[in-house]
Amino acid sequence: MNSALQFKDSPYTTFMYETRVDLGNGIELHVETGGHPEHPPVLLIMGLGAQMLFWPDFFCKSLIDQGYRVIRYDNRDIGLSSKIRHKGPRLNTLKLMGRFALGLENQGAPYNLYDMAEDASLLIDRLGLEKVQVIGASMGGMIAQILAARYPEKVSKLGLLFTSNNQPLLPPPFPKQLFSLIGKPESTTEDGIVNHSIKLFKIIGSPGYVNQLEAMQTARKLYNRSYHPAGVLQQFLAILCTGSLLQLDRHITQPTLVVHGSRDRLLPPGHGKAVAKAIPDAKFELIDGMGHDIPPHFIPYLSGLFAHHFS
């Protein structure tokens, strides 16, 4: 581990430590790490508009207890990491979405997922790590695919959770789920944002496993930590301007486990299956009843799956 970095106790959990890492490319990432420094490191990459706290503490602790060192971070443009100010013209999101669905190329976003994978690669270097195991969720899984394909020397094994390779003509997200993710809250007061988040958790989450009280506490904690809707839109544009990862998947050589929930209506299971089919020798696991989230009920099984895959 890079000894020049100053770590302090995480304000959120007793077993994680936080720091800011200057990547040297104009971006600083806010990072938390936990577990024994000598244990094999697992880098967790989160999805669209999701701060690193979307990796539940219980999930991180489960991996730590199984002998791993866990690193979670805020992607650029979200949480406490650097925000990107964009001066360019406004893009027509709906037009980009149409082209994206057909597999046509889009351009003009302030950055794309290749840039975000570069952030992850630089983070591995700055933390003084040689090789990591990676778990990427949703958009984070897209970033993880690029990271594994482009920097094979830095990624030993790959875990992908409810993600996609965005190849053309995959089953589209259900409209309600998609628009809850990129839609605007009714009001921009704290309560308005919190209510919007709770609604989002319910709409994309695992049916019957979303705890209302927990969702409210999480939403409030995230709002008070950072609220930056412009970053969410820019990350969405990054996905649309990256396009299909199908060709790239064929170059992934690391042992890969793809996990998807049977009740995911944001990225239906066909997306995970397409990723597993495209990556040579990848394994696919469908979890019955799980949506596009990581509820406590599924964590012992999920963390066990990944820990076993990495061992």
UniProtKB/TrEMBL annotation:
InterPro entries found in the cross-reference section: AB_hydrolase (IPR050471), AB_hydrolase_1 (IPR000073), AB_hydrolase_fold (IPR029058)
AB hydrolase-1 domain sequence ranges: 40-294
Name of the molecule in the record: Esterase EstB
Organism (species): Acinetobacter chinensis
